[in-house]
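ligand=zinc ion
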Amino acid sequence: MRELVFLAPRQLDWRERAEPRITSPKDALVRPIAATTCDLDRLIIRGETPFRGPFAIGHECVAEVVAVGEAVTGFRAGDRVVVNWHISCGHCPHCTTRRPNACLTHQPGAMYGLPGLGDWGGMFSDLLRVVEADTALTMLPASVAPAIVASAGDNLPFAWEFTIPHLAEAPGAEVLVMGGCGSIALYAVMFALAGGAARVEYRDTDHTRLEIASHYGADVVEGPPPRRAGAFPIVVDASADQASLLCALRSVAPEGIVSSVGGHFGDVSMPLFEMYQRGVRFYTGRGRGGPNVAEALEWVAQGLVDPAPVISCIAPFDEAPAVLAGGLMKPVLIRS
Ligand SMILES: [Zn+2]
Ligand SMILES: [Zn+2]
């Protein structure tokens, strides 16, 4: 079977490898039918991360179940599913409290489509072995097209996580989103406005992304980040830019929260005394994935949000090497 391999900056190609097999009764085999790039993948492809090729890339897909192990109870062949990108056991104290990203059984950081902590396979592939399928898979609502939610295993619920639960704590709050990294910032704008934010301010330097944010209803500000942009109870840093992160940390209201989606690979010196005086909660992490996948999908299924405008293009699966090398923000590769 084929899997897409990241070789070097802007160089990707198909590689033949043996078909994965079910090796545990809790495994499933799935065939990705709509796959896309995470914002992190785009940085990897541009050579702006510590991740070096070659490795099987891709950790966002909707897939069709091909086979399940005998202990899998929630899914069967033919089901359309979203695959959570974290490798998790489903039964440790973290997995059972909605934190599969910090699974205590598998090393933190074990993921599909990234190197370093085991070769779990990538999702631009003909077949993928999903471990702990009952935990890792979420059923795709029948009314939702796979291509629209190809990002539902990672970036989409990531944006949900950094907006909707915080808006439940602070209903009607104003939200600042620092863009730059790609799709997560735009999904955050989308969820925040659908979730009742009084106003969302979106900052970025990229015209296309600013237009999408404006389409969702954000007040957009083009240009490099100022030192401070205001005082927002909820701030999302999805910039992958140090100056924007610092602006985010200075622009949070007293006792507000700043959530950073990452994309910062070096050390950053933070304005800790300013933050101390105001009281700032800062969270950064890979997103909890699993438990939030169904939540994010439900918002789409109910028509409360529409992720479609974020998609850069929809192309045939076979064209993945060239399409991904082109560096578009959110290309979706679909199997006919
Ligand atoms: Zn990701
Ligand atoms: Zn676990």
